[in-house]
Specification:
The complex is a heterodimer of chains A (about 80) and B (about 160).
Chain A (H helix, E strand, L loop, with lengths): L1 E4 L2 H7 L3 E4 L7 H11 L9 E4 L2 E3 L10 E5 L6
Parallel strand pairs in A: 1-5
Antiparallel strand pairs in A: 1-2, 3-4, 3-5
Chain B lengths: L5 E4 L5 H8 L6 E8 L3 E2 L2 E10 L1 H18 L4 E7 L1 E4 L3 E9 L2 H18 L2 E7 L2 E4 L21
Helix pairs in contact in B: 2-3
Classes of the chains: A alpha+beta (about 80), B alpha+beta (about 160).
GO biological process, one term (chain A): Mo-molybdopterin cofactor biosynthetic process
Function (chain A): Involved in sulfur transfer in the conversion of molybdopterin precursor Z to molybdopterin.
Pathway (chain A): Cofactor biosynthesis; molybdopterin biosynthesis
Chain lengths: ~80, ~160
């Protein structure tokens, strides 16, 4: 089981701020993104960064059981 | 005294408090930057803003900016507070205080901090206009992360 967090426009488009899901063959961030894009219309997901357990990672990063994955759309703080 | 140097809050920011967090005998200068809510961007009139953060990670990234600054300017001491929730025109969204023995370092490190906040800290701004709303940062599709992550500065 992993936890996936959504923020800003992605959170609004999905209507949820997080979900828990089984990895079921998903090994990398890229595969997780593809899986989500299969089920939802989320153009902003492609431009988003990804964090695993609060550290930025690349799309090639491996996801492990128990990880918290967060999609980080382009930030606009300040 | 335990006080957090890097903080996300949902209440108005006390600027004086940040200045106190970095003041010390070695300092000859303290710069404070206050990022405020602007009413007009071009023709567009903002009614109010809403900031959202991935709080735990945002505080971690602010701390990372602190480490980067320590590396570049070992004599600088920095404190950053960013506010989230609904903010009205002229409210302070972010305050950065930097103390240093000399003013040049205090100015430079302070500017570095705000530039990095805009790159790596997971905080988002939603604009409320009289004719609609928009999460800022993604609508122009001008920002891309070819690697899926931001550019790293320093070794972390």
């Amino acid at each position: 089981m992993i936890k996936v967090l959504f923020f800003a426009g992605i959170r609004e488009a999905l209507g949820i701020d997080q979900l828990e899901l089984e990895l079921e063959g998903i090994q990398t961030v890229r595969q997780l993104k593809e899986q989500i894009l299969k089920e939802h219309q989320l153009p902003t997901l492609k431009q988003s960064m990804t964090a695993i357990n609060e550290s930025f990672v690349t799309d090639q990063e491996e996801i492990k059981e128990g990880d918290t994955v967060a999609f980080i759309p382009p930030v606009s703080g300040g | 005294m335990e006080h957090k140097l890097f903080e996300i809050v949902d209440q108005p920011i006390n600027i004086e408090e940040l200045r106190h967090k970095v003041e010390r005998r070695e300092a000859g200068a303290i710069t404070t930057f206050v990022g405020t809510v602007r009413e007009f961007t071009g023709e567009k009139k903002t009614l109010y803003l809403e900031y959202q953060a991935y709080q735990s990670m945002a505080e971690k990234m602010l701390e990372q900016i602190g480490h980067e600054i320590k590396k570049k300017w070992p004599e600088a001491q920095v404190a950053i507070t960013h506010r989230v929730g609904r903010l009205e025109i002229m409210d302070a969204a972010v305050v950065i205080a930097v103390s240093a023995p000399h003013r040049k370092t205090a100015y430079e490190a302070n500017e570095y901090a705000i530039e990095r906040i805009k790159e790596i800290v997971p905080i988002w701004k939603k604009e409320f206009w009289d004719d609609g709303t928009q999460w800022i940062g993604n609508q122009l599709e001008t920002i891309n992360y070819p690697e899926g992550k931001p550019i790293e500065k320093g070794e972390f």
